[in-house]
Amino acid sequence: AALELAERGLRVALCEKGVIAGEASGRSFGWVDSQFLDPIKMEIIARSKTLWEKMDARIEGDTGYRKQGLVSLLADDEGVAMAQGWLNSVDGMSGVDARLVSGNELQVMAPNSSQTWKAGLYQPSDASVEPTMAAPAIAQGAKKRGAHILQGCAVRGLETSGGKVSAVVTEKGTIACQSVVLAAGAWSP
User: Fold this and answer.
1) In angstroms, rounded to a whole number, what is the distance separating the alpha carbons of residues 145 and 176?
2) Rounded to whole angstroms, how far apart are CA atoms 111 and 129?
3) Are 153 and 171 in contact (CB under 8 A)?
4) What are phi and psi of 86, to 5 degrees?
5) Are residues 182 and 168 in contact, defined by beta-carbon separation less than 8 angstroms?
6) d(C-alpha 112, C-alpha 108), whole Å
């Protein structure tokens, strides 16, 4: 959000209570995928994949983005049926290029696997990013575009005036503003 807003010419202050990528954004799996997700999300996931493909060039940095595809391994007929059901539910949707691969194909894809699998759900367009690289690189990209990155600066509250946000209260002082984006997650008070 800070990168996008800074690119649009807005004044941005990003307040991070710890360090960039020191919390959940540095601990995620880092998958850019859509396997087994609700079909209603496919359009936004396809957009996300497109944005991630261009992110390193956009920020002139390295997010650890790698488009190598993702395989979900299926041990039995029940898993294969579940995968086929999901494939049927997303058939023809944008950004979905998944297909079932046989156990023999999996042996070629992962020749050193110690287990034999019935099949796999393979999606070549799926990718991964390295979370401990991505968040700092994107923050640096936002900073290059004028965003202020404030680490070790927890937000403690908001001030309002006339029913609208007028400031963010941090542990290091108050920042006057007209808008706030809360990106801290559902656990944030």
Assistant:
1) 20
2) 24
3) yes
4) -65, -45
5) no
6) 9
Strand order in the sheet with 164-170: 155-161, 164-170, 173-176
pLDDT, one tens digit for every residue, the chain (189 residues) = 999 999 999 999 999 999 998 877 777 888 999 999 999 999 999 999 999 999 999 999 999 999 999 999 999 999 999 999 999 999 999 889 999 999 889 888 888 888 888 999 999 999 999 999 999 999 999 999 999 999 999 999 999 999 999 999 999 999 999 999 988 776 666
**Strand runs (DSSP E) across 42-147, as ranges?**
70-74, 99-102, 119-123, 127-128
Q: What's the rounded Cα separation, in Å, for the pair 133 and 21?
A: 8
For the chain, the 3-state helix, strand and coil shares in percent, each to the nearest 5, are 35, 25, 40
